[in-house]
Amino acid sequence: MWYRRLLLALLLAPALLWLFALIILPHLDLALLSFRERVAPREYVASLAQYRTFFGEPLYWHVFVRTALMSAIATVLTLLVAFPIAWIIAKLARGRMSALLFVVCLIPFWVSETVRTLGWMILLRESGVLPALLVHLGITREPVELLYHDATILVGLVYTSLLFMVVPLVSSLESLDNALIEAAYDLGGKGWSILREIVIPHAAPGITAGCIVVFMLTLGNYLTPTLLGGKSSQWFTEQIYTQFITRFNWEQGAAFGFLLLALSTAMVWLGLKISGQRFSDVMRRA
Amino acid sequence: MIPTLPRPAWLRAATVLYVVAFLTFLFLPLAVVAVFAFNDAPYPAPPWHGFTLDWFLGNEAAGRVGLFRDDELLGSIWTSCVVAVWVTGLSVALGTANAFLMERTRFPGKGALSMLMLIPLVIPGVILGISILAFASRLAQLCSDLFGIEADFLRPGLPLVVLGQFSYIAAIATLTISARLKRFDRTLEDAALNLGASAPAVLWTITLPYLRPALIGSAAIAFLMSFENFNTTLMLVGGDSPLTIMMYGRMREGATPVLNAVSLFLMLASAAIALTLIRGGRRAQS
């Protein structure tokens, strides 16, 4: 049937165009870029120089490791902050109250990250609201600078990530049958053991989905670390920006980009392996 | 734990406290942004100097440039809108085509293609940005070397910003629209065909109206994500800055409360979009 084939071709063409022209070819090109070295103006040879620079220069890989660690910490903190609220939405609050609480939790994330970061800057900077409050309450004598610390960056990152943790957690907790918890309780289970043996195994898919997405977004974040961390943010995306836009050293920037992509992919893969889930299911859940 | 099980009083109290603390954490940054848009002082910082509308209406004669007189800021809002309209149109069109491709056709390699369509969601935005930047620049270089044509749209600027945002927002639109098409009862189409409707008429009067909520929903999400995008845009932006980039630049310099004014505006706009979506979603369910 010729028209079925035509239809298939017509539907397939835009999808392939999108994936090849905007995703696959640019990334292959980026890979090629990262494996070459400029030897003279407009003359390049294939080499591993860019990656050697990364491992040879402590500044670069320190920032890389730091970004990875901070992202991991931010992910765990987000999980800890989000789990109780997800539990309350899914199990404790009833009917309208639960729906209302859920919507209220989502509202801040409809607002741009720029606006939310502006809010944190007004709250935390030396002339800001919280330092003034601390002085007013007599806790500190002089206003203290609360911006530009690692803890500030973490607060900002947890804040921007909450939504991506709460949503998958709520949906996985909602599907947990209350009767299971009641049964566990009747059989003598205490809060902690019920959590460990019933709730967490059941919610594992949601937890993994949330953690993967949060880690990925945190790793690739630029706005929050640079604004809340200032010069001391030392975030890897900032290095990529510097190489690409400021120094115009595209080969080095491409290598950095690939390293970040590799780390991000590795963590996604690891998360899926540990929890034994399929990529497509996790993405649909998130 | 759950309402049917006995909960000690301290646990109930802790739950309430936690919810209050959580909501404060969630809304405090937004609240300060909104409040300081009306503070009669040159910087968004305490103490409170009294109420003013200068940051909305002020003009240069008053020494304070308000939002409605700040041509640079208004221009960047317009830029963001233009970009978002393009991204939304392209994403929804491609998302719809992809939904039909994945749900209605069969071809070899379909599984791989459906995996591939999720890939843009796990690539950090910064890397999407640099890969498209590098690829487009190399294409432009190739054009000018081979044919002597200057392909300006491949240089950093709004066309590239649109493509960069579209590259991953299209994946989200695809997921949303496919999910709805999957739940469609195909016997409705068969019935219409049996009654003598032509295939385009069936598509126009049966299938597309059914998809409408998903189309509207994904359009709203695409618009919002494009409007708020920062990471990808930062790498691809040329002379005209969209709003997020403009705000970022000013936030680094320490801006006047005009930024609070524009943020308040964004909050109201996002809230309006969110409410319409939630209402729309409820109507689609009932």
Topology:
The complex is a heterodimer of chains A (286) and B (286).
Chain A: H1 2-34, E1 36-40, E2 43-46, H2 49-56, H3 58-92, H4 95-106, H5 113-124, H6 129-136, H7 150-174, H8 178-186, H9 191-219, H10 223-229, H11 236-246, H12 250-275, H13 279-285
Chain B: H1 9-35, H2 54-57, H3 71-104, H4 110-116, H5 119-122, H6 125-146, H7 158-182, H8 187-194, H9 199-228, H10 231-236, H11 243-253, H12 258-285
Helix pairs in contact in B: 1-12, 3-7, 3-9, 3-11, 6-7, 7-9, 8-9, 9-12
Summary keywords:
heterodimer, A: 286 residues, mainly alpha, MetI-like fold, two-stranded antiparallel ribbon, 13 helices, globular, B: 286 residues, 12 helices, 0% strand
Question: Could you write a compact summary of the structure shown?
Answer:
The complex is a heterodimer of chains A (286) and B (286). Chain A has helices at residues 2-34, 49-56, 58-92, 95-106, 113-124, 129-136, 150-174, 178-186, 191-219, 223-229, 236-246, 250-275, 279-285, and strands at residues 36-40, 43-46.
